[in-house]
C-alpha cells in the first residue's frame, strides 16, 4: 500500500484526509499540520511557497509515494514550484470549486468564500478568467475564520457572528451557490446551514481531489487494491500533536479507531 502525505497549515486538511480515508482506507497516511504557523492565508506568497516546499521535502524524506497539498492557499501560491522541485512524485493540490459551481448555479450568482491569499493569487484569477462571463462571482475573504476553527470553535457563537458578517455580500447578491474555498470551511457547514438554510448549494472539492489522487496512484503503478485491514494514520504537528489528534477525532466523520494512529510533534522540518 502507498504512503500518502497530506499537509495543511493546520486542521483544515482533515476534511480532505476524511474523504481519502473513505475512498482509499487501505493506504498509510501522514497528516502534517503546520499549526505553529497557521493561518497561511495572511502570509506573503514568498513565505508560503518556501514553507510549503520545505514541508513537502520532509514528507518525501519520510518515504511518501504521493503528496496532497490539502490547503487552498499553499496550492495557489506554491504548487508549480513544488512540482518543479519534486518531479518524480505525484503532487495533488486543491483549488476552489468555481468551475463546478458555475455549472451548477441556476441563477448565475456564485459566492466564493476563501482566504485573501487564495483570492489574490494568479492561479485563482487565471482559473476565474476561463469561466463564463455571464456567471457573477462574489469573492469574500473569510478573515478570522481559520483561527477560530483551529481553536476548536467551528460551531461557537463567535464563529457564527463572524461568518454571518462575511456572508452578507454573498446573501445580498442573491447567490444560490457557495464555494467553500478553504479546506477549513467544510467544518463550517453546520453554521452556514444555520445562517443560509438548505436552499444554497455548497461546493466542496474534497471528493474530486481524492479521485485525482487515486488516478495519480494508478499512473504511478502504486497498488490501490483494497484489503481487509485499514491502513494507518500518523498525525504530525509543528505545534501540538495531541491537540491535532483530539481535533481529528472531533472534526472527522471517519472512525479513526479502525486505523492504526499515532501522533508526534516536530517543530522543524529538514
**Could you say what the CATH architecture of the largest domain is?**
3-Layer(aba) Sandwich
Strands side by side in the biggest sheet: 4-3-1-2-9-10
CATH topology of the largest domain, what is it called? Rossmann fold
In helices, the fraction of residues equals 40-55%
Oligomer: single chain
Tell me, rounded to a whole number, the average pLDDT: 93
Counting helices, strands and paired strands, the structural category is: alpha/beta
What is the CA-CA span between the terminal residues? 25 Å
Organism: Polynucleobacter antarcticus
GO molecular function, one term: glutamate racemase activity
InterPro entries: Asp/Glu/hydantoin_racemase (IPR015942), Asp/Glu_race (IPR001920), Asp/Glu_racemase_AS_1 (IPR018187), Asp/Glu_racemase_AS_2 (IPR033134), Glu_race (IPR004391)
EC number: 5.1.1.3
List keywords for this structure.
2 domains; 6-stranded parallel sheet; 11 helices; 4-stranded parallel sheet; Rossmann fold; globular; 43% helix; 270 residues; alpha/beta
What does the secondary structure layout of this molecule look like, with pairings?
Elements: E1 3-8, H1 14-23, E2 28-33, H2 45-61, E3 66-69, H3 72-85, E4 91-93, H4 98-104, E5 109-114, H5 116-120, H6 122-129, E6 136-141, H7 145-150, H8 157-172, E7 177-181, H9 189-196, E8 201-203, H10 206-219, E9 232-237, H11 241-251, E10 260-265
Parallel strand pairs: 1-2, 1-3, 2-9, 3-4, 5-6, 5-7, 7-8, 9-10
Helix pairs in contact: 1-10, 2-3, 8-9
Amino acid at each position: 500500500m502507498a504512503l500518502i502525505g497530506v499537509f495543511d497549515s493546520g486542521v483544515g486538511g482533515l476534511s480532505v484526509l476524511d474523504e481519502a480515508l473513505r475512498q482509499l482506507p487501505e493506504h498509510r497516511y501522514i497528516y502534517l499540520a503546520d499549526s505553529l504557523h497557521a493561518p497561511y492565508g495572511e502570509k506573503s506568497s514568498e513565505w508560503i511557497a518556501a514553507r510549503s516546499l520545505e514541508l513537502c521535502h520532509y514528507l518525501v524524506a519520510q518515504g511518501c509515494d504521493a503528496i496532497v497539498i490539502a490547503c487552498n492557499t499553499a496550492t495557489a501560491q506554491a504548487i508549480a514550484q513544488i512540482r518543479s522541485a519534486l518531479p518524480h512524485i505525484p503532487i495533488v493540490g486543491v483549488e476552489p470549486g468555481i468551475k463546478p459551481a458555475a455549472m451548477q448555479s441556476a441563477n448565475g450568482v456564485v459566492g466564493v468564500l476563501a482566504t485573501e491569499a487564495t483570492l489574490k493569487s494568479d492561479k485563482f484569477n487565471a482559473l476565474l478568467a476561463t469561466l463564463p462571463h455571464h456567471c457573477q462571482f462574489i469573492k469574500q475573504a473569510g478573515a478570522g475564520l481559520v483561527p477560530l476553527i483551529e481553536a476548536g470553535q467551528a460551531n461557537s457563537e463567535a464563529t457564527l457572528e463572524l461568518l454571518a458578517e462575511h456572508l452578507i455580500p454573498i446573501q445580498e447578491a442573491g447567490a444560490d451557490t457557495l464555494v467553500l474555498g478553504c479546506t477549513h470551511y467544510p467544518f463550517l457547514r453546520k453554521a452556514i446551514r444555520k445562517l443560509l438554510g438548505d436552499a444554497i448549494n455548497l461546493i466542496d472539492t474534497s471528493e474530486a481531489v481524492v479521485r485525482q489522487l487515486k488516478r495519480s496512484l494508478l499512473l504511478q503503478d502504486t497498488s490501490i487494491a483494497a484489503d481487509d485491514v485499514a491502513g494507518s494514520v500518523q498525525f504530525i504537528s509543528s505545534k501540538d500533536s495531541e491537540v491535532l489528534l483530539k481535533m481529528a477525532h472531533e472534526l472527522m466523520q471517519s472512525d479513526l479507531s479502525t486505523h492504526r494512529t499515532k501522533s508526534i510533534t516536530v517543530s522543524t522540518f529538514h
